[in-house]
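Fold sample X.
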Amino acid sequence: MAKDVLCEVNSCRYWANENKCSASSIYIINHSNKEAHKSAETDCKTFEVK
């Protein structure tokens, strides 16, 4: 399990100093029914606007 989760989306409510994610858990989804092979094929569902 990752010790630190980094995020550059500073408009997210969970964004913290040094690009850290302060959410207690992270939920990532795949954009299609196929296996993802690139980060662009995924999305962070944990994101919430500040």
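Fold sample Y, listed below.
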Amino acid sequence: MPTRETNTAAERVEEWKLSSAATLGSSVRTRGIFLEVRARLPSTAKKFLHVEARTLALQMPEGSEGDFRTASMIVAKALQDIEVLPVIPREIEDILAISATERHRWLNDGRLQSAGTRTVKLRGRARKITFHVFDPRHVEDVLDRDLVTLWREQDTLTAAENRRRAAGKAALTRLQKKGRKAALAIGDTDDDSRRKLQGWEDFEADGFLR
């Protein structure tokens, strides 16, 4: 990536312009790259790295040439393969303009392809969280082919079909309940009839009908 180094009376500055292949047009992704690079710097140098638009800038006071050179080499090395840095959930949601619900649904049914998982410890907490990450080239392909629009249309059709099937199942259940109630009612009528005809055989044997 192209860099620019300048000297002023008060500081030394070096800049790195991030490519669109690295940021995928996302400010959230740009911020994520910045945090990834800054995490590799010594603690004393972290505060001197900044990000603005799509540019990382290392600004250190004059007189810190040794530290500046060390930090500059670390940043340059970190940026060598930055275009293949896995995309994390909040980044893919921003890049594709999708919701967390859509991300989970499309990941679960295989439309979004996981590139593995990553486990991080939350700051100030003992708890760790694990989440799926994504290959930036896969994300770029989804974006370029506008697959999000296609997937949303598919989801709309699927939801409509599911509602139709649910309505049909509910109607069938109601019909079955009515059928059972009717059968019970008929059964009760037969029982009443049988109770009313008790003693008929004796009545006929006595010859009252002859």
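Sample Y note: The chain has a mean pLDDT of 86.
Also: Residues 149-194 form one domain.
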